[in-house]
Prior knowledge:
The protein is of the alpha+beta class.
Amino acid sequence: MKLRIPREALAEAVSWAAHALPARSTVPALAGLLLTASQDGAGGMLAVSGFDFEVSARFRAGAEVAEPGAALVPGRLLSDLARALPGGGHDVELAVSGSDLSLRCGPAGFDLPLVPVEDYPRLPSLPPVLGSVDGALFAEAVAQVAVVAGRDETLPFLTGIRLEFTADALRLVATDRYRLAVRDIAWEPGSAPEPRTGPEPRTGPEPRTGPEPRTGPEQTSAAGGGAAGGRIEEPIVALVPARSLHEIARSLTKGERVTVSAAADDTGTRAGSSGGGLIGFAAGEREATTRLLGADFITYQSIFPSSYVGSAVIERQPLLDAVRRMALVADRHRPVRLAFEAGRVSVDVGAGGEARGRQSLAAGFPADAEPITLAANASYLVDGLSALTSDEVELHYTTPTRPAVLTGRGGDGYRYLFMPLRQN
Length: 424
């Protein structure tokens, strides 16, 4: 393998692929980044890939390829070097020489030890295309629901974000049992990406293959009639690890559209099957895949109240600031109280014999409505108010002990449900 590539292009490619490097691995080859150089009549390409059996990341960049080939090098070391290479418009020259990869950039040169390419598992390819979504909107929606995803690995469904693809919208849902967040956004079913130039990079002769992806629970096949000819006849559902999806969504695109792909079900099994599947995302030169969680999600629709006793409208930022102030006074076991009365809401915390705080804010609360006090975990309120993007929020309630829901005034498709705490 021998090639020349702009320094900035190499740094961007390595930075993206390094997202998939495992923190620790019992397979030494997974600590490496795979560099694959290919060429055709139109020019050359360098693909930089990372994989940890759960998440893969690949970046394709144009390069002057003199000799096609593949090299597997220590990933963290290459990532550090790519950021530290000298500037000044220098290109980077990469060449395999014996058991090393030679890296030259202007006055700086390095020799990195090679890891046997044949030890690297086969990288998963992008599954069939489901459709595309605005990248910035998708990243915002993922961040809004990821804030409530649980971290208890003994209950896998709590650590995921449920994606529901229909003909009209893409819905994202997450919960930690005490909170539930839902966001609906527009998307375009069945829109495929532009064809890539250049051949698909290969990792070398017959690399060792990792576990084959399987279709996950509550996942309708993309190839079995779910998304045919740009139409979605039945909902396609995938439960994606929240941490992986959040990282992919916020790093994947700079204003581009994101193409979403999902593994086909070769068994014909539709929603409710067991096991784990694969979902992929692509934008520009970036690609990523992640395995789905093999767990059933809760029937969340019934958790939302069918009707509300009342609601109040408050300016979001002043309320968020007030809750943050009260949280400084409250210990982790003490709730923040929201007391609503005609035209006002009081945010207070504490009781006799301990630190106390109180702040009053204007609120759109009807004068003829029965006053109500809701007690809630301060961090839950902070998370929900921070996730909303509107200037005003509306709090919908039933009783002091039943679920309450925060939405943006004017409606952006985001709902944040939390459980009030019982007051002593």
